[in-house]
Amino acid sequence: MEIVRSIMANVAALRPSREIDAKDQMYGQHDPHYFGVGRSSALMIASALTARLAYAGGDAPIGTALDFGCGHGRVARFLRALLPEARIEVTDFNRPGVNFCVERLGCFDMGETVPSARYDLIWVGSVFTHLPEKTNLEVLAQLKAALRPGGVLVLTTGGRLGALTLENFLLGRSGPRASSYGLSSEGAAKVVADFRALGFGYHDYPGQTGYGGALISPAWMFDHAVDDQTLMIMFQEMGWDTHQDAYAFLRVAAGDYSEVDRGPYFY
Predict the structure, then answer these.
(1) Which of 60, 138, 155, 175 has its CA 20 to 30 Å from the CA of residue 223?
(2) In this predicted structure, what is the pLDDT of residue 153?
């Protein structure tokens, strides 16, 4: 348990920038939960990098990391604190958010396209929760290709808890586990039904196309993310902020997963 306490102590000791952009809609009115979500991300990343130690090359340093969907830096500020020597790149459709991360948090703009074989670590928080299946598959393929051998992709999705939350909304219940997540009643019902039946449910937000709410099962994620060059090294239900499911995938440094050797600390 001392090892676990040490990891927790290191995450708790992180002191990220407290500067908040006035346009940061995630922050709200001086919301302390904002920093709790960022710290939860740091714990997920630390857990994934710890799991990476089981494999050969798992102790390689993180030289370049990407926050994909950075917003105004809710997680990027923790990446900077967690990995002070790394190059932290950011990207988002929210250009003011990207500019804030670059100008105030010491990050770098990824650019217009996702580069290939560039990153040792990629964080994707609550992006797959808003995209239809075809787009999710395209983004997943791009991000996997963006990893260097030995790189880790950490992402979050809505899952079983999300389905329960939508069901409670549809039943007219109230409380922290009852929400529409911005969906219409018809959209929420379809998302839940398809998630239960197919492992993937999605519906557009009212008035939008190609952007809405999605729920993804672990089975769907395993079937579509894992291949000969990709290992699933972590799954934690409700692991991110006790809300979204968290996954970590390792791009193997060997020819394929069957050739991966044990980590350096197991000899």
Answers:
(1) 60
(2) 98
Provide the sign of the torsion angle of the four alpha carbons 154, 219, 126, 93, taken in this order: positive
How far apart are alpha carbons 28 and 245 in whole angstroms? 24
pLDDT, residue 265, reads 79
d(CA 247, CA 112): 26
Q: Is the pLDDT of residue 202 over 90?
A: yes
The predicted-structure confidence for 29-66, as pLDDT tens digits, reads as follows: 567 799 999 999 999 999 999 999 999 999 999 999 99
Q: Which two structure tokens, joined as six digits, stand for 79?
A: 């990446």
Average pLDDT over residues 87-113: 97
Could you write out the DSSP letters of every residue in 197-254?
A: HHSEEEEEPTT-SS-EEEEE-HHHHHHHH-BTTEEEEEEEEEEETTTEEEEEEEE-SS
The tokens describing 216, both together, are 């993804």
Separation between Cα atoms, residue 242 and residue 236, nearest integer Å = 10
**Cβ atoms 90, 98 nearer than 8 A:** yes
**How far, CA to CA in Å, does 142 sit from each of 98, 114, 204, 236?**
20, 7, 23, 23
Q: Is 36 helix (H, G, I), strand (E, B) or coil?
A: helix
Q: Which helix (H) or strand (E) holds 150?
A: strand 147-157
Angle, vertex CA 143, rays to CA 215 and CA 108, nearest 5: 115
Q: How many residues does the chain have?
A: 267
Quote the distance between the C-alpha of residue 106 and its chain's center.
20
